[in-house]
Design brief:
- By secondary structure, this protein is an alpha/beta fold.
- The chain contains 9 helices and 12 strands.
- The protein has 3 domains: 66 residues, Ubiquitin-like (UB roll), CATH 3.10.20; 89 residues, Rossmann fold, CATH 3.40.50; 74 residues, no CATH class.
- Helix 5 links the parallel strand 8 and strand 9.
- The longest helix has 11 residues.
- 28% of the residues are buried.
- The C terminus is likely disordered.
């Protein structure tokens, strides 16, 4: 995340006047959401600490703080910025609660994250530097597949995975529905070969174990092989 010339170890940073550790670290392009904790002169300090001339600051990333993430008892919920539509679908595929709209403004994203206690996922460093954001993740890759694995690993999502329980389009939890109730909306081959269906109460989308099912299973299994003991039976959409 740092510039390459600063990644080899200790370096000097010039600053003028009283500056908080948060301000100095973010001036290097590192949002505070990416920081687990800091040490100032080998002692633990908050990001509000006013840095003095000659202080030695050690910054530790969230990636090094996995044990604390794993110890959380609250199911993680997310809000994603408008460039992450594919990642949103992947996470909803796992049954995770993801708020998304492709035209959310930055202030809306901030307010949703704060008001609903959601983790803000974005590639916008400046957005995560907003002082009121408590939980967020700066995605490094442009590839949704890589982003998918990154989020699963960072937030240790294994225990929260409930595949194919949530609508990929609008985030509502799916409900079982009798075939006869949706028969007039089905294509002849679907009627012939499938008997189990689920319905989204939000957008009325119908889901079944169609052509996408096997591909979706493979995508889940590829994500670090973390779903080896997860029940993958409920039908997904086609």
């Amino acid at each position: 995340m740092l510039k390459r010339r600063l990644q080899d170890g200790i370096f000097d940073l010039d600053f003028t006047g009283p500056q908080s550790a948060k301000h100095l670290v973010e001036s290097l392009g590192i949002p505070h959401t990416e920081i687990s904790h800091i040490l100032v002169n080998s002692e633990s300090r908050s990001l509000d600490h006013l840095v003095q001339d000659g202080d030695c600051i050690q910054v530790f990333s969230q990636a090094a703080n996995k044990a604390n993430i794993e110890g959380s008892t609250a199911e993680p919920r997310f809000v994603l910025d408008g460039h992450l539509g594919r990642l949103t679908a992947y996470l909803r595929m796992l049954g995770l609660d993801c708020q998304y709209r492709n035209n959310f403004s930055d202030p809306e994203l901030v307010q949703i994250s704060i008001n609903e206690g959601r983790i803000l996922l974005t590639r916008d460093r400046r957005l995560l530097m907003h002082k009121t954001i408590q939980h967020g993740c700066l995605l490094r890759s442009l590839d949704p597949e890589v982003q998918f694995i990154e989020i699963i690993q960072r937030y240790s999502l294994k225990s929260w995975i409930k595949p194919f329980q949530r609508c990929l389009l609008c985030n509502y939890e799916l409900q079982d529905v009798e075939k006869e109730a949706v028969l007039e909306r089905l294509q002849p081959l679907t009627i012939q070969y499938f008997d189990e269906f689920r319905l989204c109460p939000g957008c009325n989308q119908i889901y079944w174990k169609g052509s996408h099912y096997e591909r979706m299973l493979k995508r889940i299994e590829k994500a670090g092989r973390i779903v080896d003991d997860v029940h993958l039976e409920p039908p997904t959409g086609s």
